[in-house]
TrEMBL record:
UniProt entry tagged with the keyword Lyase: yes
Gene Ontology molecular function: lyase activity
UniProt organism field: Nocardioides eburneus
Database matches in Gene3D superfamilies: Phosphoenolpyruvate-binding domains (3.20.20.60)
Cofactor(s) essential for the protein: Mg(2+)
InterPro entries associated with the record: Aldolase/citrate-lyase_domain, Citrate_lyase_beta/mcl1/mcl2, Pyrv/PenolPyrv_kinase-like_dom, Pyrv_kinase-like_dom_sf
Protein name: CoA ester lyase
PANTHER family reported in the protein's UniProt record: CITRATE LYASE SUBUNIT BETA, LYASE BETA SUBUNIT, PUTATIVE (AFU_ORTHOLOGUE AFUA_4G13030)-RELATED
Keyword annotations of the record: Lyase, Magnesium, Metal-binding
């Protein structure tokens, strides 16, 4: 296998294409809100969603009927051209799309239509069912050719969905396949099918995947093996999310939880999103307007976390050594964790005036 030299890695893949980025800038993307651009009721709601959600994503792949694929693609072009403040780094809300799978009859036309028509508006292209670096290389070169032809000055970034067993096995090489790689989302439904898991849901847990409390003993010391013991449902997705987070952090790109299909169970959706937030993800998908608020809230640090983090920063002075705060040891490494939260709060406050007010109003007691 041949390897590129670092200088080749950052050279455009087509004459006239924009120079690849050297760093993927952090842009808030707490909720990636999916809509079907061929559905008039959803499309009607898009203009008023601008500014209330970090990312609007025109979905062309699964959940779009085969008969509507063309209408969805054309609908997305119209929306991108007609909606102020959407995409292209100018507005508050990014514009992403999810193209069809690379082996489908639609993927090539998705790219060759969207890039010339709205390439200046599209911030990120999400590629589904990515199996390995070869899929990213294909899209990378094609995008460079299309960008050069369209005279674009800014490279469109690539986001891969991790939703096959092979994709999970190759997650490291996928993240490092191109300077365009922006991030990864977990696709729990396709991944479950590909792995031959026995679940039938889109994300979430399963009552059968559990650990049961040990059997108690009676007075004679005999075990009581009855079923009436505490059961603790386990997280089906922990391994994959953790693996994805490590791969993304290694490559300086961003990890996301994907969809949560039980729209009415807003409580469990919040749990799934919070687990992802705590493990290092920066956002999740929203499939229904009700999920936007959940993601915005969960992927923004809480006032309590920011108050604590700022107290640690203040108590740690130049950032070295160890101090006691509220009976706990704080040192260089706990400070670094606190700085992750403080920095995130600053980045979110810069685009979200309500959060800015909330974080600015935090008062810190003397340590
Ligand atoms: C779940 C559904 C069917 C419920 O749709 P509904 O119409 O039954 O819901 P509703 O509560 O009645 O809707 C209320 C209003 O909101 C509108 N609405 C509803 N949803 C949206 C939306 N997203 N954006 C904008 N507007 C929306 C809807 O049109 C309606 O408008 P109205 O009041 O004028 O009648 C619907 O919300 C929907 O189709 N959502 C998107 C589904 C989707 O994109 N799925 C694919 C991503 S998940 C995936 O692909 C898996 C993965 C990663 O690949 C893998 O794990 O493998
Ligand atoms: Mg899928």
């Amino acid at each position: 296998m041949s390897h590129k030299s670092p200088k080749d890695f950052f050279a455009p893949l087509a004459v006239g294409a924009p120079a690849p980025v050297r760093e993927i800038p952090f842009r808030p993307s707490r909720a990636i809100h999916f809509f079907d651009p061929s559905n008039p009721k959803m499309v009607d709601k898009i203009p008023q969603m601008v500014g209330t959600v970090d990312v609007l994503l025109g979905n062309l792949e699964d959940a779009i009927k085969a008969d509507n694929k063309l209408a969805a693609r054309e609908g997305l072009v119209q929306i991108a051209q007609a909606t102020a403040g959407l995409g292209g780094q100018s507005g508050p809300t990014q514009l992403w799309t999810r193209i069809n799978a690379l082996d489908s009859p639609w993927a090539l036309d998705d790219l060759t239509t969207l890039v010339p028509a709205i390439g200046d508006k599209l911030d990120v292209i999400m590629v589904p069912k990515v199996q390995g670096a070869e899929d990213i290389h294909y899209v990378d070169r094609l995008l460079a050719q299309l960008e050069a032809k369209a005279g674009l000055t800014r490279p469109i970034l690539i986001h891969a969905i991790l939703e096959t067993a092979r994709g999970v096995a190759n997650v490291e090489e996928i993240c490092g396949a191109s300077p365009r790689m922006q991030g990864l989302s977990l696709g729990p439904a396709d991944l479950a099918a590909d792995r031959k898991m026995k679940t039938t849901r889109v994300g979430g847990g399963h009552p059968g995947y559990l650990v049961r409390e040990d059997a108690p003993r009676d007075a004679e010391g005999a075990y009581a093996y009855d079923a009436d013991r505490f059961r603790f449902q386990q997280d089906l997705w922990h391994y994959t999310i953790a693996k994805m987070v490590d791969a993304c952090a290694t490559h300086g790109i961003y990890p996301y939880w994907g969809p949560f299909g039980d729209i009415k169970d807003t409580v469990a959706c919040e749990d799934q999103f919070r687990n992802a937030f705590l493990l290092g993800c920066v956002g999740a998908w929203s499939l229904h307007p009700v999920q936007i608020e959940i993601a915005n809230r969960v992927f923004s640090p809480s006032v309590e976390d920011i108050r604590h983090a700022r107290r640690v920063v203040a108590a740690m002075g130049d950032g070295t050594g160890a101090v006691m705060l509220d009976g706990k040891m704080e040192d260089d490494a706990s400070l670094k964790q606190c700085l992750v939260l403080v920095e995130l709060a600053d980045q979110l406050a810069a685009i979200d005036p309500k959060l800015k007010e909330l974080y600015d109003g935090i008062e810190i007691e003397e340590a």
